[in-house]
Structures are given as C-alpha cells and as structure tokens.
Design goal:
Chain A is an alpha/beta fold. Chain A is built from 15 helices and 8 strands. In chain A, β4, α6 and β5 form a beta-alpha-beta unit. The chains are: A alpha/beta, B alpha/beta. Chain A: It catalyses: L-proline + NAD(+) = (S)-1-pyrroline-5-carboxylate + NADH + 2 H(+); L-proline + NADP(+) = (S)-1-pyrroline-5-carboxylate + NADPH + 2 H(+).
Amino acid sequence: RLAYCPNLRARWLSRLSVKCPSTGRMSVGFIGAGQLAHALVRGFTAAGVIATHRITASSPDTDLPTVQGLRKLGVNFTTSNKETVDKSDVLFLAVKPHIIPFVLDEIGPNIEDRHLIVSCAAGVTISSIEKKLRQYRTAPKVMRCMTNTPVVVREGATVYATGTHAEVEDGKLLEQLMASVGYCTEVEEDLIDAVTGLSGSGPAYAFTAVDALADGGVKMGLPRRLAVRLGAQALLGAARMLLDSEQHPGQLKDNVCSPGGATIHALHVMESGGFRSLLINAVEASCVRTRELQFLADQEKISPAAIKKTTLDKVLQQPGVTAEGVGVKPRGIIA
Amino acid sequence: MDPEMDSQLKIGFIGAGNMAFGIAKGILTGNVLPVNVKVSAPSSRNLGRFQELGIPITHSNIEVVCGSDVVFVAVKPHLVSLVLNEISQHVTDRHIIVSVAAGVTLSTLEELLPENSVAIRLMPNLPCLVQEGALLFARGSHAKQEDGALLRSLLHRCGLVEEGPESWIDIHTGLSGSGVAFVYLFAEALAEGAVKMGMPSALAHSIASQTVLGAGRLLRDSGKHPAQLRSEVCTPGGTTIYGLHTLEQGGVRASTMSAVESATERARELGRKSSKNQLV
C-alpha cells in the first residue's frame, strides 16, 4: 500500500533513513551509463534517497547522450569501470546482457567483500555471474534485479532475486533503494523472465497503446497534443484506480460500461480484434525471447556483430584489460 | 406474500406445452393447491403430465379463464390473437393475464384484451422445467406493482424472477432464452475436446454437463464477479491459463457478445413483424 501512495511513501522513506542511515552513507556505482543508469539516477535523485556526489557511473563510450545527462545531475562520471568499483559499495551492472561477461572479467580483481553486485541485465543468471566472479573472490555478493524505465518518474516496477552469498540485509538495502523509485519486491529468480515480459517491456506496450489511442482521437477530430495527453491520463488514472482498489479489473471495467453505451460498444470491437490474446501473446513473446537470450549468454556465444567494435576497442584500451582477459580473440572475430 | 391468499388463488394455463408445465411445477411447490390450477389444450396429448400432478384438465379455454384469477397464455405466438379473441369477453379487471409468447408485445396484448385489462408479459426459459429458470416480466399499462409482486411470489420457485421495462425482454431472450443453447454448444465442444484427447464420449459428455452445472452454481452462489472466479482458478503457468489463452485467441468473448446481439436483434425484428401482423 505504502509504495502506491506518493505522500505516504515519502514520509515512510524519511523515517526510514533516520532509522537506517545505510542508504545515506553508502556509495552507489553504475557500470554502464546508458538509459537504465540514467533513469535510475534521476529517480534516486528525485527521491532524495542518495546524494549525487555519492554516485559514480562509468562507460568507455563518452558519446552517449545519457552521459551528458548524468554529468549534469552531478554524478561522478569516469571512463574507468575499475574506478567505479573502487568508489562504490552497491554496484549496478547496467550494461547490455552480452557485455556482462567482459565487464565481470574486467572488474573481477577489484571486487571487495563490501561490494554488493546488482545485475540489471535481462536474461543473465545469478549463477553465471557468481561463476565468473568466483575466479576472483570466494563469496561474491550478487543480486539480480529487473526494473523498468518509469523509475525515472519514481513509478518503476522492480523485482529482485538474491544470490548465494548475499544476506537478508543486502536484499533490504536494495529494496530500500528501489522502493524509492517505485514498487519493489523480492521474487524467486525463475520468475524474472516473466517479469521482464510483463513489466520490463510493459511501458513499451503502454506507449504503443497511447499512441494508437491518440490516433483514434485525432481521427475523431482532436488535436494531436491533446489526444496524447488525454490518452496517457486515461491510462494513468485507470492504473491508479486499480492499484488503489480491492476490486478485480473486470469489475472496474463493468463499472465504466453503462448498458448499451459507448464504452461497451468499443469493448466489443476490442474483443473482436483479439485485444486480450494479443496482450497475452506479447508478454509471452518477451518472456520467451528473454529466455532465449539467457540461453545464448550461458553458451557464451556472443556474435561478433552484437558487439560494437568501438565499444570493445575502448574496453581493450583500459589499463590492465587484455583481450584474452575479456574472452575474445584479439581482433580476429570482430566484424 | 400472504400464504393464505396464495392457497386461495386460482391459476389457469391456456396451452399445455413445456413452458406451461415448467411454470406449473414451480407454482405447485409453493402454497398453491393442484385443485386450484386448471390447464386447457385442444388435444389430450400434453395433458397427461398435468393430470399426474393432480391438476384438473379441460379442452375449454373459456372454462380456464372463468375459473382463474391469474391466466398464463402459453400458446405459440401465432396462436395468441386467436386465443385472446376467443376469451376476451370473459376477461374482467380482476384477472391478471400473463403472456409467455415470444415476440408478442404488451401493446398487442392490450389491444386484443378488453380496456383496462391487467396484462403482464413474461419471458421464461427452458430450465424452468427443472425450477432453475431465468424469468423476466414487464407490466402492462394497467398492471400495478401489487400485480407484479403477486406474479413474482408465484414464480419465485421456478428460478430467478426479475422485473424490467419491456425493452429488456428482447435482450433477456437473447441472453437467457437463447443463451441456454449457447451453453449447450459450449458443453458439446468441451466434451469433444476431451474425446479428442482420448476420453470416451459418454463420460466426456456427462463430465462436461456437470462442469457447466458446478461452475454455474458457484457463480450464482458465490456472488463474485466471473472474472474474479476465473482468476481464482488460474494457477500461474498452469493448465487453465494455457487453455484460456487459446480461447482468447479464438475470440470467444467477442463471438459470444455477438451471439447475444444477434439473438436480441432477431427478437426485436420478430416483435415488430408480429405487431404488424396483429394490425392487419
């Protein structure tokens, strides 16, 4: 309940940071400075759960537009992943799934006992990360989370799973951080792919829906801006009603449909188009693809085309990083 | 309703078909005595089962009207005007005439009956036969609330009894008159699915019918929204959600909505046609 109501949540959080100064004193690092890192930093900053000078982000690629954004927020930006590790207690791995193995090999030697590694990479298992890190440390503390982009407006949906060596307190710490930017709960790792399909990809489904609803509005005569605004507000309002209600969404739908009215006519059209089954199919497709990607990653089959040459070059330029160390044959396999 | 009054009430049936029989059975489980019921039909073919219940029979519609307070007109729609013309002179303002004829409007009934007659239009459905009917009635211009209440108390043992404006009767026909057939179609398909998967047909059919019955009772008695009940059956990643997904992909919801719509439209059309015929 607390997580849904912004005012209550803010008060709960401020009481929490008095009781648990842990979030206040800890440092957070992001390996990767793309959309996810940027969104999380914006959310944490808005929530006031951590000061920006305690946040470090790194990426070999400084051309990313999000790098600018992170710098502007007051985050310590560096091209050295090792530097991020040294400056952080909680370390978010916010890179694309196929980059994870490179990153782990690169930072492995720098991991200390205090570090909590939180991977946000879709389809990358805790066991695959622990396996890599155990080459460098006997008991690496690893957690896996799946979040989504609305963390940027503090309405994220996050789940996390706890690794072999992570303690209950580590889970609570992560939960504190992620609850400041939306809903957060712990799950068994085997559910994370389904979560990816539903709420990971979910915002994309919603954007598509609003875009199309707006088209409908425009077709019927509304100016575009107004149509988009109203479409988004309708979805936002409906979601808020549902979250605040004990009732089944089917019941809430019924409450909107007056007999013989406009809405029930529209719903019939939607049913005729297989609206429901489309959404079920979409969640399934996203979940299945996530599993496929995980399977590919476990095989450590990374297609050369999947790795941007420039990124890999930059990684290889870091002091102490060798081609063999990050698992590629020098030059040969890169397209 | 006053049980003493009930037991004094005289009920008549013109027509001895399934609807009349179902309603009669229901009425008798209340306080009405068989001897206070009378049924008429031109031939003796259908009268046997009424006699078994202790109900007096006759071939005279006029006899039924004169001896009854409430008269159910339960003949086929095309016979209604014939019957009403025959009995009209014997209808007084103490009678309540209840028509169960599909598509025959209150205005038609009132035109065929003497001025100020109390007419009620009732749409039952087949499961009245087993006292699990869904019945909707609409009161005519001179039928008062008490007349509706009387009918309701008579019929409540036939199943669910509700009142509504006449415009809802066609919808009720589509939903629960024809709806019964839609359920039979679904039950048949369920059984065939099971047969396809290897179950013997007779067993599959008997289980399918019990499944429909059981689900129906749970739905009615739990008071929960069907969507809620559906969610409760679906364990994550289980068999039910897989099956439901397939149903959704088949557009079952939309075609069911369309089925009710088609049946309702047809009921309205028939109603218009029969009104025109009466005026000719």
